Amino acid sequence: MKLGPLAAIQPASRLSAVLAASCFAGCAVAPAPSAPEELYYSRNGVELLAGIEPDAPVNGVLQFDTQAQILETHRSYVRIRTASQLEGWVPRDLLINDPQRRALRLLTRQCETLPNQGLFRSRDTLNVHVEPYRWSPTFYQLTKDQGFQVLDRMLVDRLPAAAATSRRPPAPTGQDHWYLVRVPEINQAGWLIGNMAYADIPLEVARLAQGLAINAYFAIGAVHDESLNVSKPTWLWVQSERRDGTYDFDRLLVFQWNSRLDRYSIIRRDSRLTGYLPIETVSDFETQHGTGTGFRVLIGLDGKLHERTYAYVNNRVYHLGEEPITGVPLRIPPGGFGELYRRPSLPRF
């Protein structure tokens, strides 16, 4: 199953008491009991405090998915009891409720067969969110340079926190690019802000990016350098010159190692595209030019979505053709975990 690239983005309506408590964290409230049967789950690295005083000792550190019950609340803090009977105070916005946890599990299942669009790393400490909004609860925190897999990229309306509880969503204040990602350490999919990530690609290739972010990349082959006695990967990547574009990329480039020049050279460049993720690659791809690596990209042409197929065979890139996609493929809308669509297998040329 694959996710498509053209569905409208709808604001979330599922977030409830957890977000409401965070939004009103500045208001003093008397401690109140919580329903003992209501379950919550911790983000990773959460310190369990003995009290809410600034110098309160730490009773322990909770890891991702630690199950707990809320015993009482005080302003932005809650006192919890874990399944192992540890008790203490934590910031409420570092917990997610049971419906949100179930939704995250569903998202992970829906993303199981999505092709990996490259290993990326966080520029600094970076929160992974339940939904692609800055105020959405976080269920995991990446450390600086920690890696994750990018699955998709989406331009999302920037909505104020009131959108979590309002019946009539407020007007957006702008737009942000978000990545749908998979965190390998916990095998969980989620969302993170796109401008805080960078592609984990060798520096000798990354320096050719001309200051533009790499939005997806793939090793599609290799060239053996006899003088160095090493194999140098051939890289495919896509970029966007416009930071505010509603599409995912407008440039496609393939870089191949040139042993005579002792550096990478561009062997394919397609520009002025209206391209969408995800990109699919297939090994042992048979064509009239021979067998190599096939890759297929989604391109918008004349208001319609087309699948354009290429093949990397014998150190050359061939454009094999393109055809319109029947129907309108849908991608997962933020917070909606919407429909999926099945793309046919790559044809043999």
Describe this structure in words.
The chain is mainly beta and 349 residues long. The protein folds into 3 domains: 17-96, SH3 type barrels (Roll), CATH 2.30.30; 99-196, no CATH class; 201-324, no CATH class. It is 7% helix and 46% strand. The chain has 3 helices and 22 strands. The protein has helices spanning 17-23, 98-110, 203-206, and strands at 39-42, 46-49, 58-62, 67-74, 77-82, 87-91, 95-97, 119-122, 126-129, 138-142, 147-157, 175-183, 188-193, 197-199, 214-225, 230-239, 251-258, 263-270, 275-287, 290-301, 304-313, 316-324. The strands form 6 sheets. Strands 6-5-4-1-7 form a 5-stranded antiparallel beta sheet. The chain is elongated. Mean pLDDT is 83; it is low at 1-31 and 330-349.
Average per-residue pLDDT, rounded, comes to: 83
The total of beta strands comes to: 22
Instruction: Characterize the main sheet.
Output: 5 strands, antiparallel
Q: Specify the structural class.
A: mainly beta
**Termini, distance in Å?**
23 Å
Strand order of the largest sheet: 6-5-4-1-7
Helices, by number, come to: 3
Low-confidence stretches: 1-31, 330-349
* Percent range of helical residues: under 10%
